[in-house]
Design a protein that fits this description.
mainly alpha, about 65% helix, globular
Length: about 400
């Protein structure tokens, strides 16, 4: 598939018809609060839906209760094993590359600011981490899993934000298109898949071609379940590169909201890192992964650790070599990665399960009215279209 500015302009006009209609009906009938209260008791796939659930919500949950029929379960298992092998690195990439990249798109930063909870700045990172862990659990799409209900609720959350912004006239639809439009949803899918793989490569993490492609495939499945129109989403890593390059070139730049959200992110992880000596490594790692231009736009502080962080890929590459050559080393590093990820997630969530709900109002503060996979053929990122 070939992407052009005109084709992406068309995607800016489209939202998510099913979720948008469901949310509009819930608000029209005054049933949002009731829906949120009842859905707190629905956290696993296959659970009986509670009595009294609005009929429009019941129909939506029925229609979205299963993954797409085109899912290749062999690829999904490869993705799960890839995640086990690289979980701590993936968490690092999500935290210090994917999220800042969202913030460097001004209209996305404004949307995230509108729905952020300032009193609990780790909320979005906790939700993202929890969502990814749910996705990569064995049986993520089977009865008893937590992933499908989480995906259903996140999809409605996005629809609710579109509903509020359109209703209150706080969104420049003529210039920006539909809030959380198809272009932005696909862009988000690329930031959480291809950009993560780019970041792992930049950190000198050894990845097989099969593993990288499977991880990207898993996020294609996620995108479909979150309302991304698969007729327009990249189907492979080469088209993903083309889309992401064009998307970022079209939109990225500085904004007060992006700088504010980045400051929150840095403060959050400085709290997680023990002591204060290593605090500057958070800013340094963000700069290393997103580059100095984006780092300056996001007002990421420059520190003496900026040079030190450049040695991280060499260290990680040495550890990866140990993992490649030693079964015991692989086991020990995978176990350490698992424990690190668990610690990070528990720190972000404060030990709580994150609940995804439809916001009845948006924030006034922002002007919005109420591996077992063999490492054969090591993966390298697809080249940019203008790389020659």
């Amino acid at each position: 598939m070939t992407y052009t500015p005109a084709s992406l302009d068309a995607l800016r006009l489209a939202g998510d018809e099913l979720a948008d209609a469901t949310v509009a009906t819930l608000f029209e009938r005054g049933e949002v609060g009731k829906f949120n209260t009842l859905m707190r008791h629905v956290s696993t796939a296959g659970s009986p839906l509670p009595d009294g659930l609005p009929e429009v919500a019941r129909e939506y949950l029925h229609l979205t209760s299963a993954p797409p029929d085109w899912v290749d379960w062999g690829e999904m298992e490869k993705a799960r094993l890839f995640f086990i092998d690289n979980n701590v690195h993936i968490s690092t990439a999500l935290s210090f590359a994917s999220m800042p990249a969202c913030y460097v798109v001004p209209h996305v930063a404004k949307l995230l600011s509108a729905s952020h909870a300032l009193k609990y700045p780790s909320k979005r990172m906790a939700e993202t981490g929890q969502f990814t862990v749910y996705l990569m659990q064995p049986g993520a799409f089977e009865a008893g899993s937590r992933f499908i209900p989480a995906a259903q609720k996140v999809r409605l959350l996005h629809a609710a934000i579109r509903h509020h912004l359109a209703r209150e006239g706080e969104w420049e639809a003529e210039g920006l298109g539909t809030p959380i439009c198809q272009e932005d949803m696909i862009g988000g899918q690329m930031l959480f898949s291809l950009l993560v793989l780019d970041s792992l490569h930049r950190l000198n993490i050894h990845m097989s071609v099969d593993g990288a492609e499977a991880y990207f495939y898993a996020w294609r499945v996620v995108g479909a379940m979150l309302g991304v129109d698969q007729a327009h989403a990249p189907a492979d890593l080469d088209s993903a590169r083309q889309f992401l390059d064009l998307y970022l070139t079209r939109h990225m730049g500085p904004s007060p909201e992006g700088a504010h959200l980045t400051r929150q992110l840095i403060d959050l992880y400085e709290e997680v890192v023990p002591g204060t000596f290593f605090d500057p490594i958070v800013s340094a790692l963000i700069r290393h992964l997103v580059g100095d231009t984006c780092g300056d736009w996001l007002e990421v502080p420059r520190t003496g650790w900026d040079t030190v962080v450049k040695a991280v890929p060499a260290l990680l590459g040495a550890l990866e070599t140990i993992e490649d050559r030693s079964p015991f080393g692989a086991w020990a590093l995978d176990r350490l990665g698992h424990l690190t990820t668990v610690f990070e997630l528990s720190s972000l969530t404060r030990g709580r399960v994150m609940h995804y709900t439809i916001p009845e109002h948006l924030k006034k503060e922002y002007g919005v009215a109420t591996s077992t996979v063999p490492r054969t053929r090591r993966w390298t990122p697809p080249a940019s279209a203008d790389a020659g």
